[in-house]
Write a structure and sequence with these properties.
Rossmann fold; 6-stranded mixed sheet; alpha/beta; 2 domains; two-stranded antiparallel sheet
Length: 293
């Protein structure tokens, strides 16, 4: 990333203003209603009332007071949210207005500020084909701003993408069930086994960030394509209908295989595109989650 620190801070501030507004308007409330903590906490005792569950009577207190008393519990709200963000070379690709990495920072900010508003802790893992940065979960807006800055400013040592490695790291480092938001374009070697293990231990949500230019080849004659992760160069005749059709078929087959991987692990995928408003996709996701509760 060639941006100066001043430019990075401007982007952080812009993302903060945009996402805080969206969180206040809608997403924060949807997050609160959908994502719960892990279990319940004891709150107090109160007298038994007709209709209460008999099994909730505390017999020790009942014996001391001479009247039946039950335990009151409240839902444990605190949740740990972990943002796992792919910052490999392919994430710098994007349209005129925004790269996939900048969009990932904005989506991560939405979840981070929603969690902060809900008094949840937020952690961060940046990864390429190696772990790049691990921030332990913490509360507070200052921590959320650091998360945005790290996503935008990180200069990865690796160029490729190893999602399986990232999932293994999270599975081994998160001691309790957490909400894991996995942000990537998912152009990576097979990670289905690691995803299945992570999905059993955590609530995993896949946020796939794509650019429309990746989905089809334009008819512009011979072009030289560069794989940003491997460095491989390839000359392609995009004027050939057969070449364009084959590329489209390969891309569609890859996406179908990826969708099958997510379905097999029973996790949600949110489809985010660099050329479209992401709010409808997020609202649809929260609506699906709410319907299943």
């Amino acid at each position: 990333m060639a941006d100066t620190l001043s430019e990075i801070l401007k982007k952080v501030r812009k993302i903060e203003l945009i996402t805080r507004g969206i969180v206040r308007a809608a997403v924060g409330g949807e997050y609160h209603s959908v994502f719960k903590g892990q279990g319940i906490d004891f709150d107090d005792f109160r007298e038994y009332q007709p209709g209460d569950e008999v099994r909730s009577i505390d017999w020790n207190v009942t014996a001391r007071m001479g009247l039946p008393f039950i335990k009151k519990f409240v839902e444990e709200r605190e949740l740990t949210v972990f943002l796992a963000v792919d910052i490999s070379a392919s994430k710098n690709f994007g349209g005129v207005d925004v790269s996939k990495r900048e969009l990932a920072a904005e989506i991560a900010a939405l979840f981070a500020f929603s969690a902060s508003q809900n008094q949840d802790k937020v952690g961060l893992l940046l990864f390429s084909d190696v772990p790049e940065l691990f921030l332990a979960p913490r509360k507070g807006s200052t921590h959320c701003l650091r998360i945005i800055r790290e996503i935008l400013h990180a200069n990865p040592s690796g160029r490729g993408t190893d999602i399986g490695m990232a999932l293994d790291k999270l599975t081994s480092h998160l001691p309790r069930r957490s909400l894991v938001i996995l942000l990537s374009d998912f152009i990576a070697p097979d990670f289905s086994r690691q995803l299945g293990v992570a999905a059993v231990r955590h609530d995993v949500v896949a946020v796939q960030i794509t650019d429309p230019a990746e989905e089809s080849l334009p008819d512009v004659g011979w072009i030289r394509l560069l794989d940003p992760e491997s460095g491989e160069l390839m000359d392609v005749n995009t004027s050939s209908r057969a070449v364009r059709d084959q590329y489209h078929r390969n891309r569609a087959a890859w996406q179908a295989s990826l969708d099958a991987t997510f379905k097999s692990a029973a996790i949600d995928r949110i489809d985010i595109r660099t050329n479209a408003n992401y709010q409808p996709a997020l609202h649809a996701f929260f609506k699906r989650r709410a319907a299943r509760r």
